[in-house]
Amino acid sequence: MKLAFLFPGQGSQKVGMGKALFDASPLARAVFEEADDALGFAVSKLCFEGPEADLTLTQNTQPAIVTTSIAALRVLEQEKGVKPDVVAGHSLGEYAALVAAGALRLGDAVRLVHLRGKFMQEAVPVGVGAMSAVIGLGRADIERACAEALEGHPGEVVSPANLNGAGQVVIAGHKDAVTRAGEVAKKLGAKLVKALPVSAPFHSALMQPAAERLAVELAKVAIAPLQLPVITNVEATVNRDPGRVRELLVRQVTAPVRWEESILAMAEAGVSRAVELGQGPLSALIKRIAPGIEVSSAADPAAIAALAF
Fold first, then answer.
1. What is the CATH topology of the domain spanning 2-123+206-306?
2. Structural domain spans, the chain
3. For the chain, what is the total number of helices (H) and then of strands (E)?
4. Catalytic residue among 203, 204, 262, 283
5. Which of 44, 91, 199, 297 is flagged as catalytic?
6. Is the pTM here over 0.85, yes or no?
7. How many whole angstroms separate alpha carbon 281 and alpha carbon 303?
């Protein structure tokens, strides 16, 4: 049996996240305390108590999710004594995957994603960009919808942002362009086009200013040898080279998240079991992308205790 650990991205946050882990495990408490110290503010309090309006700010959401994921990871490692054969994370979850692989220190990871969230938010004024989920179309039709939406609108951007699989693709770009692409997608047979409640057009060319600012911060951070292979969002293939980590994380800001391809790559490599470290949407996606992979969630002490390997 080959085992994968998966780490969720933005959208998996909720007030109360990680509190049961913190209360039950000294290891989890140490993770939250380390993150608080690294950030200079109590991300633990935001996770446990909110308010939700503050927790959902991108610059707070990102370190909150990484911290909670790593707390769950440390408890799982201690209680079950298991190590994965490969790790991957969805968007910001790739930072948690790199912590799991030993390439990033937790403190560096949470500082980076806090800044990443801030830079992404500041790259595009609120209301200028948008994201929508398109259900029921393949990638080729999505790309056609985006191309048609841009005809006669020079300077605007809309493109696939999250290639999530199971007929789900998220598009991102200028608000009007995203709306037009959604209308074309419906004409091409999309079952549903749903605007997402996000504050910026993540994983699109509009994030280039954020990518440039993040590159400066990544240059200051040590990258250790990877103790586990990491399937990256940008290439949907395994990276074992610590010298490429910074470049891939910078490219990830503007490139689409190739999640379906990442999971299919795992399946082809023989992964038959996956555990999601957090309460995100990845488990449901994986069941549809690769039904042969048994997937479970490790979001709290009870779920971790119930896991058998």
1. Malonyl-Coenzyme A Acyl Carrier Protein; domain 2 (3.40.366)
2. 2-123+206-306, 129-198
3. 14, 10
4. 203
5. 91
6. yes
7. 16
